Amino acid sequence: MELLAIALSGAAAVLSFAGLVVMWLQLRIAENVAGGRGVYITACPTGIHTSDSAGRGSREFIVRIELIGQGARHHTALSLVGVTRKPDGDRPIRDRMDSDSEPMEWRVTIFDGDDISDAWWIFSWADAHGDGLLTNALRIPLDQDGRGIEHWTWKRFTKARYRFQKEGRWYLPGSGHARPLGEWKTKLNMEFRENQGPIPRGLSR
Question: Tens digit of pLDDT for each residue in 69-113?
């Protein structure tokens, strides 16, 4: 009887664990379904070259952001960093974007000779994080030199790191000094080869 009770107890534990695994998989699937958000990005020179009255030549660049998939992004904005001169006009900002929204587009003029080796378009938005918000972002190189799209990744324990850096307690070495709470990482861009997906490459977008 003792052996039977142990066997039944063991079987119940296995079934309970299997139930937890199934529940976890269902939650993961639900997360993937709810969070299936994509961004279609076009960033390139337009081919338009102009010159001003002083004879300075310039080139025009464009970035175009279109959301695809489910869900929305809130407080979206485009920025341009790493350029010598501030672009003319206001940068695009929207309260909300989803797949039904008109694409967000920005054209800027860069003078010939300006260093754009570390210039980036940045597309940013606000995401929920616990009981607050955090800014997430993608960045695209202005100079198409082979660098790929990068995404901002917050480090673990962001709030705790922030408080540690803000408080500045003398008995805590390193506190009180602002340091990056995240880092830019290369974004995996899944481009399927022929026969890997359901639609032939010639028919894909």
Answer: 888 899 999 999 998 888 877 899 999 999 999 999 999 999 888
Ordered DSSP codes for 4-60? HHHHHHHHHHHHHHHHHHHHHHHHHHHHHHHT-EEEEEEEEEEEEEEE-TT--EEEE
Q: What is the dihedral of CA 79, 148, 188, 107, to 10 degrees?
A: 30
Among candidates 127, 134, 42, 118, which has minimal Cα distance to 80? Answer: 118
| Alpha-carbon gap, residue 151 to 139, rounded angstroms | 6
Query: Measuring CA to CA, which residue among 100, 122, 110, 1 is closest to residue 45?
Result: 110
Closest CA to 41 of 83, 104, 99, 98: 104
As a whole number of Å, the end-to-end CA separation of the chain is 66
Kindly report whether the global pTM for this prediction surpasses the value 0.90: no
Per-residue pLDDT of 180-198, as tens digits, reads 778 898 876 666 677 777 7
DSSP SS3 for 110: strand
* H/E stretch holding 161: helix 158-167
pLDDT at 17 over 60: no
